[in-house]
Amino acid sequence: MCSSLRLVAGSKKARGKSPPCLAKTGRDKGGATSLGVFLLAALLLASAARAETRPRYGGTLRVEMRAAPPSLDPVASAQDEGFAQIAPLLYDTLVRLDPSGRPMPSLASSWQQESEHRWRLMLRQGVRYSDGSALTPAVAVRSLHEANPDWNVHAIGDAVIIECEQPLPNLPAFLTLPRNSIVLRGEGKLLGSGAFRVSEFQAGRRLSLAALEDGWHERPFVDAIDIQFNRLPREQMMDLELGRADIVEVAPDQLARAPQSSRRIFASDPVDLLALRFSHSNLRDRRVREAIALAVDRDSIYNVLLQRHGEPAAGLLPNWITGYSFLFPATPQVARARQLRGEAKQSAPLTLVYDAADPLARLVAERIALNAADAGIALKALPSTQNVIVPDIELVRMRLASTDPGVALTDLARTDRLALTMPELVAPPLSAPGFGADRVGLSEVYRATVAALQDHWAVPIAYLPAACTVSPRVRNWTRTRDGSWPIDDVWLAAEAR
């Protein structure tokens, strides 16, 4: 991949080539001249049509999103979903995941598990940052230590050694998280080895990126990316219609309208968890939490509000990642919920706070309030703009951090948005050391999920897809299962430049 160019029509090497033409046109007989001119014109038109389907370099891709990362620092923005979308454009990690969720080399060319507590990773040679500085073991050691202060990270030659008092199962997959991006820190700047560099960053407003001409990645087709933050769904769609945006987000409840429109809409597999988080200080009686969990009608939310996009969720991870979501019953048990409510003698009204900027969250919160009422529990849905100091319940929405089940579950436990207590994941016995060491098994992930949910401090409701719509000027945009942006091969038609 080192500094290679795409050998395709329309690449830099092909720039400036004239379309093929006839070497001669006959002028000695009758209509030969007319025929030659006709054939030349037809060939030129065909060549022009082919050119419109060829990838071309140039132009600025304009993207809008609701999120607004407060920083471009991988450590400071570790839990920010907007940053997770942007990070792969700027930074690289030692390991990446392939579409099936298996670890693959990135800045690390290989790795070896030497014991349950120690891994050795060999760095790729020839990698440079956006200022031309070379990737060194010292840079990787500092980045990993910043993100994981409990690790003992050091360099031996061209290798990075990671040790920890606790076992490190599944480390290669964990290293793919954006927080573990390998950045060059210095003089108040953060530099990455990704395909783009930062031209301008205004926290909460916009980010401008420029493609690197001589990085270790293939040069992207687009010259630049302009990302607008804090844009509401209605504003995004208006900008798309007016030609001011190329990529905008689509809410899950709007996907049902896609067949009636001419827009190109791309939806991922279910990747956003919608869940209830209970207050540890206000709802200490487990019976009340369980009663609400049993009262929720997930199928109704899925069928009516989500229009069958996504999936009902009673477990913490979607079925396409684990294959066992059916083991967590999602059918409401209203009679049992009423019994628990009676035993707990819950009578005071409870508050359920939802994101005021998310129309879908309001609908879901109101439906959950109705479900709770069926169980005899008074639940009032309030928007986040009401500034409730300590809400009894919060409706939260978060993106999966990884397609690896062990890493995704561990990350959910780390975030304070769910406040889960989860046992340590244990890998199978260490097999022969080398590339592709054992990963945490699904049985361990299932066991940990059951343990995390048994006290009902968090109640999964549904998994939602991430969706976007693109303007006609955007070419070669493809669907990804995890909702990430497939920027590498995207190019813009002539009118977009």
Summary of the model, kept short:
This protein has 497 residues and is an alpha+beta fold.
What does this protein look like?
- This protein has 497 residues and is an alpha+beta fold.
- It starts with 31 loop residues before the first helix and ends in a 5-residue tail after the last strand.
- Helix 6 (286-295) packs antiparallel against helix 9 (334-344) and helix 11 (405-414) packs parallel to helix 12.
- Strands 13, 14, 15, 16, 17, 18 and 19 form a 7-stranded mixed beta sheet that branches.
- Among the domains are: 92-193, D-Maltodextrin-Binding Protein, domain 2 (3-Layer(aba) Sandwich); 269-466, Dipeptide-binding Protein, Domain 3 (Dipeptide-binding Protein, domain 3), CATH 3.10.105.
- It has helices at residues 32-52, 81-90, 137-147, 171-174, 233-241, 286-295, 298-305, 319-322, 334-344, 359-374, 405-414, 442-453; strands at residues 60-64, 95-97, 103-105, 108-115, 118-123, 152-156, 159-163, 184-186, 189-191, 196-202, 206-211, 224-228, 247-250, 264-278, 311-312, 350-354, 379-383, 393-399, 458-470, 474-475, 491-492.
